[in-house]
Predict the structure of PACRL protein.
Amino acid sequence: GSNVLRMSSGIQVKPKSAAHKSKTSPLPCSLEPAFKPLPKPSDKLNPKTIDPFGAYSQQLSAFASTYTKGGIPCRLVHGSVKHKLQWECLPETVPFDPLLVTLAEGLRETRHPYTFVSKEGFKELLLVEGATEKAIPLLPRLIPVLKATLAHADDEVFGRGLDALVQLSAVVGPSLNDHLKHLLTNLSRRLMQKKFREKVTVTLQKLEQYGGKATVAIIKSKIPTYCPISS
């Protein structure tokens, strides 16, 4: 009837309490990763603590590392038909700085689930009320990230960059014009590839639609062959 377990060696071990068993709790929306104790130096020599995928985990990108540590307040939910994101709190309550930039950086990921989380998270965050006022101040930091995405050699990464650019343009409108020239060189390069010609053209048309007539001159300064949709 005792709560003490007797080992064959004679050592007495008390079972862990319920408090020790359950350490998971909903993360706050502060985006601060949960505190984790530093590993002991002896852990390096302990076979139980050696990660067989250690070399792989050391290659994690900044986005993947942030996601793994719980620094991104949404998770992938596998559905029978399609995947979706589950937010740990209302997206409207999540600070755009730095999450929107972090999600944009994740667009360059090539591994699941980071590809889906970054793409869908970026899109859903821009759909919340007040997204325009929250996103515009972040443009100086978002544009270099999108530029790197559009320069990526992976076709799927480039496609996600195009989608994100259109989504951002729809939210910030003409405010994107001051930064647009930094992105057009990569768009022009892909425009010459047959497989991307149509999608890049549609993207440019969307940029014109959301950015106004001033956008046309900016586009044509880098892509003289562009035919504007406005007369």
Q: What stands out?
A: The chain has a mean pLDDT of 82. Strands lie at 5-6, 12-13, 74-77, 84-87. DSSP finds eleven helices and four strands in the chain. The first helix runs from residue 18 to 21.
